[in-house]
Amino acid sequence: MALVTAVICSLSLLQAGSDGESIGNCPFSQRLFMILWLKGVVFSVTTVDLKRKPADLQNLAPGTHPPFITYNGEVKTDVNKIEEFLEEVLAPPKYLKLSPKHPESYTAGMDIFAKFSAFIKNSRPEANEGLERGLLKTLQKLDEYLNSPLPDEIDENSMEDITVSTRKFLDGNEMTLADCNLLPKLHIVKMEPQIKLLPGCWSVFFGGGQKISQL
């Protein structure tokens, strides 16, 4: 129990919003926030205004941005490593296992944020069309994955030919680490009026919002 408490108390630094206080639009901070929320952990949040970093933060993790955790004097700044750490420590039977069953679910849409950032930050008009096309192609690929049945949706003994998935999320009907990684990024993409989410992407985004609101 002491181990879990130590982890919870240490994971309290998230990037602040434009007002310097509310939780910002950082998908990496939101990813860890969602993991703790889905696991049912009681935790507190301390936001950090990157324009006015407190001295103790700079001393603790110089040159790094939130989110990060400290544990037993060790600072963990890599979001992927933090995710692995939380999944290992906050484990069953007390906490939900959030690792996806299908490895493909975790890699689906993994390059969307990079494609979106390249498109939205582009300053060369002549490159805009190609970058937008690349982003839309990535969204289309994700949409196809979401609409394709997973192996456990197909009953080999059934006469029914299932061609379209009915699952709610990337890996099934329950949210996993894959959704925690993808949904904050989809949220940012959705805010750009030039880009429209495809039906499968919109469905998992809407379902994620409903799930979080029920927790």
Features:
single chain; 215 residues; mainly alpha; Glutaredoxin; Glutathione S-transferase Yfyf (Class Pi), Chain A, domain 2; 2 domains; two-stranded parallel sheet; 4 strands; 6% strand; flat; disordered N terminus
Structure commentary:
This protein is mainly alpha-helical. It folds into two domains: 2-89, Glutaredoxin; 103-214, Glutathione S-transferase Yfyf (Class Pi), Chain A, domain 2 (Up-down Bundle), CATH 1.20.1050.10. The protein is 49% helix and 6% strand. The protein is built from nine helices and four strands. The chain has a two-stranded parallel sheet. The protein has a two-stranded antiparallel ribbon with strand order 3-4. A hairpin with a 2-residue loop joins strand 3 (69-71) and strand 4. The chain is flat, with a radius of gyration of 19 Å. The model is unreliable at 1-14 (pLDDT under 50).
